[in-house]
Design goal:
- The chain is built from eleven helices and no strands.
- The chain has helices spanning 16-30, 40-47, 51-57, 61-85, 90-103, 105-115, 122-132, 135-157, 166-181, 186-192, 197-211.
- α4 packs across α7, α8 packs across α9 (166-181) and α9 (166-181) packs antiparallel against α11.
């Protein structure tokens, strides 16, 4: 059995041993362990299974780490979708996204560090490049774009803003996400932002809405 079988379309129910290995990898990441120093034995020991089991599913440590990262983040995206489904109005959905980013700041920073291809050794960088240009990740990008467009269309239908150009909407949405993402790094937040998070959240929301009001 090869790791190539595990893509985002099959991630909902991986075998239990694979799930245990994925959880071990994300535990190490959350503990800020140097990924380059991790071994397959470290991962399987944390997972409570034999070292040889890893090679029944994955061709290398790099493949295991990369797929664990993709699996875990796809689960986080699914969690966000459940949260969004639980709120009705545009403003609440935007705040939901902001809070999801802000409250999971440590997790998101770990993910962003892993996306920085300077992390780990040459083999890990190459595997990341290969996997993150894979068709499965393109599907994730497409989902996020579609979900964002649907939320922005809801804002227009609710009369929150008048802009109908989908490109301008996407730019405004991306700018909002970027502004909140700046707070993911605690040092940057302390250095550049003197306002409380709730105040900043409202400011970012109002700025986005104003940017989408068409001036005659």
């Amino acid at each position: 059995m090869g790791g190539a079988k595990f893509d985002l379309t099959n991630f909902s129910e991986p075998p239990e041993k694979v799930r245990l290995m994925f959880r071990a990898v994300t535990d190490f990441l959350n503990e800020k362990t140097d990924i380059g120093s991790l071994t397959v034995q470290d991962i399987t020991a944390r997972a409570g299974i034999g070292k040889g089991t890893a090679y029944e599913y994955f061709s290398s440590k790099e493949e295991l780490i990369t797929l664990a990262l993709l699996f875990d983040y796809s689960a986080k995206i699914a969690e966000l979708q459940r949260l969004l489904d639980g709120v009705e109005h545009f403003r609440d959905k935007i705040f939901c996204i902001m809070d999801w980013l802000h409250e999971g700041s440590s997790y998101h920073m770990t993910f962003l560090r892993m996306l920085n291809l300077s992390a780990g050794g040459m083999d890990l960088r190459q595997t990341l490049r290969d996997k993150f240009t894979d068709e499965s990740l393109e599907g994730l990008r497409s989902y996020l774009l579609t979900a964002g467009d649907a939320i922005m269309e809801q804002g227009h239908l609710e009369g929150v803003f008048s802009e109908t150009d989908p490109v301008r909407r996407r730019l405004a949405f991306a700018t909002m996400v970027f502004q909140i993402a700046l707070t993911l790094d605690e040092q940057m937040e302390q250095s550049f932002f003197s306002m409380e998070y709730a105040e900043m959240r409202e400011y970012v929301y109002q700025t986005m809405v104003r940017s989408l009001e068409i001036c005659a």
